[in-house]
């Protein structure tokens, strides 16, 4: 059996069927909206917002999660190292970092680390058959 799926792109504003429909996302009064618009209606929206955009300040990214299927941009180099935005304060960064010893930049060793060591790592245990060979 053969199945054929047809996707019809419809402009949400005037309900015209057209190939150049794209989803436009915008925010107003704290709410984010999406609308599917053809080229003419996208241009009309851009023209209507042009004078407002010319004097507006760009806001940071919204804290809402992206819609399913939306592309996710990779973290910036400053974010990828620590997982925090570059504007995070030192106290925020320190709180999110693993603990470090007072005079070292490396994390303190676990006091139980020796429990994971195999018996031949300890000085008091030698592998069988190595007596007198200087192997520990």
Distance separating the two termini: 71 Å
Strand count, sense and barrel status of the largest sheet are: 2 strands, antiparallel
Named at the architecture level, the CATH assignment of the domain at 7-57 is 2-Layer Sandwich
**CATH class of the domain at 7-57, anyone?**
Alpha Beta
Strand content: 5-15%
Continuous helix count: 3
Q: SSE string, helix = H, strand = E? A: EEHHH
Specify the structural class.
alpha+beta
CATH topology of the domain at 7-57: Wheat Germ Agglutinin (Isolectin 2), domain 1
Total number of strands: 2
Helix content: 10-25%
Assembly form of the protein = single chain
Secondary structure elements and their pairing?
Blueprint: E1 22-28, E2 31-37, H1 39-55, H2 77-82, H3 90-96
Antiparallel strand pairs: 1-2
Explain what this protein looks like in three dimensions.
This protein is of the alpha+beta class. It has a domain at 7-57: Wheat Germ Agglutinin (Isolectin 2), domain 1, CATH 3.30.60.230. The chain is built from three helices and two strands, in the order ββααα. It has a two-stranded antiparallel ribbon. Strand 1 and strand 2 form a beta hairpin. It is flat and about 90 Å long. It starts with 21 loop residues before the first strand and ends in a 40-residue tail after the last helix. 2% of the residues are buried. Residues 1-60 form the Lsr2 dimerization domain. Residues 85-109 have a biased composition (Low complexity). Residues 120-136 have a biased composition (Basic and acidic residues).
